[in-house]
Every structure is written in structure tokens, then in C-alpha cells.
Amino acid sequence: xxxxxxxxxxxxxxxxxxxxxxxxxxxxxxxxxxxxxxxxxxxxxxxxxxxxxxxxxxxxxxxxxxxxxxxxxxxxxxxxxxxxxxxxxxxxxxxxxxxxxxxxxxxxx
Length: 109
Description:
Blueprint: H1 2-24, H2 27-44, H3 52-76, H4 78-97
Helix pairs in contact: 1-2, 1-4, 3-4
């Protein structure tokens, strides 16, 4: 259940950041929420099972999702594009932090 939380936090932070930026009109505040969501997602990731590069991949995907939501806003509308991209980010984050990929342990010599 803990690994699923990374996807949920990433998704929720993405939607919340847009919502706050829309309601307040302060885009910087939305950006701050995105950063807090990214830090929180990285902090709750199970580091014993998730290699650092997978956590980094989620952060890179989040940046790409941010750009993609702007591109999709034209044809879909602002909120639908944010929802679609947030769902894709949540699924990707869940897939990257779950599964049978334990970090290899080095044996003591």
C-alpha cells in the first residue's frame, strides 16, 4: 500500500497545484505545491525496494507532464488536460515504485 501512495501523492499534488494556481491567480504558489508534492513523493518512496533512478524518473516525468498539460490544454481544456496528465503521472509513478525490483544487496566480505 505504501508504494501506491507515491502515485496518489504525485497525482494529487499535480491537481492541487493547478487548482490553487487557478483559484488564487498566483502561478508561483501552484509551482510551490508541485515542488512540495515532488519532495513528499520522493520522501515516502520505499527506498529499500525503489532504486534512486526510479524516483528521479518520476520527477522527470512530472516535469514532462507539466509541459504536456499545457500542450493538451488547447484541444482539451485546462481542467481536462490536468486530470488526464495527472492520472498518467500517477499510474507511471505507481508502476515505477511497485513490482519485484528489490535493490540488490552487496554481500559483506
